[in-house]
Design goal:
By secondary structure, this protein is an all-alpha fold. Helices cover about 70% and strands about 0% of the residues. α1 runs antiparallel to α2 and α3 packs antiparallel against α4.
């Protein structure tokens, strides 16, 4: 595994966590819902990484989100690890198809948000007690879909794989 791509992914994830906890959660939340920018960056970078690197990136970004946020420690780490793994597994099916890639971002955001809600409810956070829980999940997915139009090309350009190597780093 080449660590250059993983280092770029970790730097992007750290920037995403900082933006999520300072900017999106506090100031940019139209209709009371902020986009899940960390999840989007994990998905975008996992399209460029191997399984192990994507899971490490998801765990690191999730743990940092848990540490800086106001959630239970480890819930986002588990969710983003699973999302990173699933992203790598579906990559061969959507690679090269722009619309499918965007739809996969939408579906992965919904899956991540619902997994977080289920785990949060299991550990006593009462996520499903909110009447607007499903509205928030769908709005976050729509926001991530719109942001993916800018984030996916940027991460693909930053983390361009070496065609001569023939493997994902």
């Amino acid at each position: 595994m080449r660590f250059r791509f993983l280092n770029i992914g970790l730097a992007l994830a750290i920037a995403a966590v900082i933006l999520q906890t300072t900017l999106f959660d506090r100031f940019l939340d139209p209709f009371g819902v902020a986009p899940d920018f960390v999840l989007l960056v994990v998905v975008a970078t996992a399209y460029q990484l191997s399984e192990e690197a994507a899971m490490l990136l998801g765990f690191s970004a999730g743990l940092l989100t848990d540490l800086l946020g106001n959630t239970l420690l480890g819930v986002w780490a588990l969710v983003l690890t699973v999302i990173g793994y699933v992203t790598v597994r579906i990559r061969p099916r959507v690679e090269g198809y722009g619309l499918l890639t965007l739809l996969s971002v939408f579906a992965l955001t919904i899956a991540g948000e619902l997994l977080y809600a289920v785990l949060g409810t299991l550990f006593g956070q009462q996520v499903f007690s909110d009447v607007n829980a499903f509205k928030k999940v769908l709005l976050a997915a729509v926001y991530n879909l719109l942001l993916a139009l800018f984030v996916l090309p940027l991460t693909a350009r930053l983390m361009r794989r070496d065609p001569a190597a023939g493997v994902w780093a």
